[in-house]
What we know:
This protein has helices spanning 2-30, 40-58, 63-136, 143-173, 186-204, 224-240, 277-280, 292-297, 304-314, 346-352, 368-380, 391-400, 420-428, 449-458, 470-482, 489-492; strands at residues 182-185, 207-211, 219-222, 247-258, 261-270, 318-324, 328-341, 360-364, 384-388, 408-411, 440-444, 462-465. By secondary structure, the chain is an alpha/beta fold. Helix 4 (143-173) crosses helix 9 (304-314) and helix 5 packs parallel to helix 6.
Amino acid sequence: xxxxxxxxxxxxxxxxxxxxxxxxxxxxxxxxxxxxxxxxxxxxxxxxxxxxxxxxxxxxxxxxxxxxxxxxxxxxxxxxxxxxxxxxxxxxxxxxxxxxxxxxxxxxxxxxxxxxxxxxxxxxxxxxxxxxxxxxxxxxxxxxxxxxxxxxxxxxxxxxxxxxxxxxxxxxxxxxxxxxxxxxxxxxxxxxxxxxxxxxxxxxxxxxxxxxxxxxxxxxxxxxxxxxxxxxxxxxxxxxxxxxxxxxxxxxxxxxxxxxxxxxxxxxxxxxxxxxxxxxxxxxxxxxxxxxxxxxxxxxxxxxxxxxxxxxxxxxxxxxxxxxxxxxxxxxxxxxxxxxxxxxxxxxxxxxxxxxxxxxxxxxxxxxxxxxxxxxxxxxxxxxxxxxxxxxxxxxxxxxxxxxxxxxxxxxxxxxxxxxxxxxxxxxxxxxxxxxxxxxxxxxxxxxxxxxxxxxxxxxxxxxxxxxxxxxxxxxxxxxxxxxxxxxxxxxx
Length: 493
């Protein structure tokens, strides 16, 4: 009985060893082993198998010997399973790594494409909006023509908003959208928002009502451009979905103030078409629209509110909505905002800023139409402008001019021969008293976050994306020139 048990154990060990050999052959093929030396484990297992057969056929094994031979096969089998598991994990890791690299390469390609297409779209948009702005400043313009130009401007700004939303959606996907930090006046921000919204309401025959208590005003710290964008997105949405004679209302309320931080609730409400409750849960999703009838009547991409929600959340705030079909909608934004104190008096603000009259600006711009528009806008403020067709010419003009000849430089980024980044770096490196202090403003269609950081890293003071608003350009120049201390012109020439 023991003899047959021993032979059975040896047979089982031999069969298991045959399976082990087969498994290791598959394993070798699986990991694409090609070297002869790597086949040695298989050869060794074959020798073990021959030994099993020799002992079984010609030897006189006992129960202990049978157990040892069977245990050896089991041990090899376990090692085979462990090696297979480890190899599978390694290959899965390599596959995931390859997929991640492919995804990163795809994102780089998409980012490059969006940066290129954004630049190409912003360049003609700059011409359209710039010429429209210059034309509207003509006091002798007929009312009919003025109305047509205003409609062109509104449509252009709508298209620019869509371009910005696409860029922001891409930045959000890559978690690279960032907020700037600066001191700003809440009164100025809301005044600009109200001016735009009032115009939109007048065009549609709507009533625009505001309720902004004085206690919510003052100076705050944060990204004022993105804050205004949140307000305008909600207000434009309200105007869009409200028919005459409807009402759009913008209100604010101070909830609390503690340790220099104010909690403020902003409310945008309308008497428009409203939304079904079932749609509210999807309202802030990208590309969401309620139904086909709304899509055909009210144009849009469905990106604006998704971007707005993300901007609010990036500021640590919250956004909510209440709506009833055919009654209207109410959007509520609650933000915690660092408070710096009350605004300066209007007279103090005016005295703090210099006039652009007689100021000498160096403009580096390779596209003649863009250069002409900026020069026309500066001429309206009685500023003098010298034009350089690329960064190399701008560098030479600044270097050859006497110190403090120029009050500021407007620098495009993408130019032939020498781009704006390199020109800025070389200007800042010049051994002359005004090289380190002259305000250099990026005025460019390169509007990605990476472009902003690249401009600031090169030594520029501010990044303005084309098409730049005329008032924003004026205010930026006044602010930066006001903050620059220079000797009298007579002493520097």
